[in-house]
Specification:
With 220 residues, the chain is of the alpha/beta class. It has nine helices and eight strands. Helices cover 44% and strands 16% of the residues. A four-stranded parallel beta sheet has the order 2-1-3-4, with helices on both faces. A four-stranded parallel beta sheet has the order 6-5-7-8, sandwiched between helices. It is globular and about 45 Å long.
Amino acid sequence: MDRILVINPNSSAAVTRGIDEACAPLRMAGGPAIECVTLKEGPPGIETQEHVDGVVQPLLHLVRASESRYAAFVIACYSDPGLHSLREATRKPVLGISESGILTALTLGQKFGVIAILQQSIPRHLRYMGALGVMDRLAGELPVDLPVVELADEKKTFGRMVDAGRALRGQGAGVIVMGCAGMARYRKPLQDALGIPVVEPTQAAVSMAIGRVRLGWEAA
């Protein structure tokens, strides 16, 4: 059976568990199988450009070492660390959750909003969205001002996500993208609270990876 490897580039096992749970609806008879792993060399949360840059080499090593065992790879960090380097390293599909989440959002609404973890994350995300050429479809991005390690605290996190989502909806967002894999557990309740589609980006990337594997698409 074909297998997809979903890599959490931070070292938080709790985040990996949340990612694994988010992938559950995408597991089906006949596969491909979906496996989630934690990059042990990563920081507890990827919150700066230095963190992003620092995990590229360990990600390359992991993908190269496991390439023969997997049909596709998903990088489960909203900064898409090493995405293009990894695509150079293998002809197997490599999906980044930010790119996949944003592209999915574009099919669900005219304008999308992003909920970030920290204010300092937003300039990094804006640079990336500028490179993707989607700034004219962005309604806005707002933070919950919590580091990755605190996202598991529902009392702190969910209310802030709802407030940010409502503000983004007020700015014209017809769909919300959750800007961190650590938010995965909140997708359905957030969508229920906001009344508009909410994209969990790892689910979006894994969905694309399944399609690539089933259709036999490889990189050019």
